[in-house]
Amino acid sequence: MPESTLTMRVKRHLRYAIYGVLMPLISFEGQAMTEINIAFTDPLVMPIADAIVHGNVKQIHQLATKSLLQQQGEQAVTLMQWAILNQQPESLAALLQEHADPSQPGMQGDTAWHTAATVQDAHYMQILLKNNIRPDARNSVTLATPLAAAIMAGREIQVILLLVAGVDPNIADRVGDTPLHLAGKSNAPDLALRLLKAGADPEARNKQGATFQQYLAMTPLNIQSAEMQQKYQQLNVWLRGKKLAEVYQQ
């Protein structure tokens, strides 16, 4: 049986709470951290971490070495994640030019791909995609893909960018959830429709034996907003066209 709506919400809030551990170190709203030595205690890493925060591209190029670019700070934050979270796109581009690895596992097992997929500004994802590196990295703990992360965060632009880049929408995480399942758990029929149009399998089942439709159907349609009801209607039109069961039978 699929998880209850309450259970899913608790899990989602727990995930956000985990990220909240980093809030004293990094502001997700662009307030660059001034005390670099809190996030990076290695004196060899602190200069490049400081250069990243201040967008000092020249210094990044001067300091970057293969071993230095692999270093991580508090909560395993990578230098590429550090650039994204401090809202420094030029620093991120410079790190890529120096061959930093966006697939390096960092905070909570996420890579820079996952971080770029979840932040509000989609520009970081665009920067990563310009380097012709496949965005198919997996979270080292959950095995979730960047596409799954974008779905969970409700980042439609990143979802579109990743699908256009040709990512596989059917890769499941360690509990068998595909991005389509996560769209269902997140009550996002519009994102589910995008995934379906990109080739997501509507009949895929997770380890609980549930399809994405079972999660979408958990919240009664009559308590949804008018906008949300319209999104469900659009999804059902597509499902009917493919001769598949609707989320809500009319």
Automatic annotation (TrEMBL):
Which SUPFAM superfamilies does the entry link to?
A: Ankyrin repeat
Query: Which key words are in the record?
Result: ANK repeat, Repeat
Matching PROSITE patterns, A to Z? ANK_REP_REGION (PS50297), ANK_REPEAT (PS50088)
Please give the SMART domains that the UniProt record associates with this protein.
ANK
Do you know which InterPro entries this protein is assigned to? Ank_Repeat/CDKN_Inhibitor, Ankyrin_rpt, Ankyrin_rpt-contain_sf
The UniProt record lists the keyword Acyltransferase:
no
Kindly give the Pfam families that the UniProt entry links to this protein: Ank (PF00023), Ank_2 (PF12796)
Q: What is this protein called?
A: Phospholipase A accessory protein
Top-level taxon of origin:
Bacteria
The segments carrying the ANK repeats are 175-207
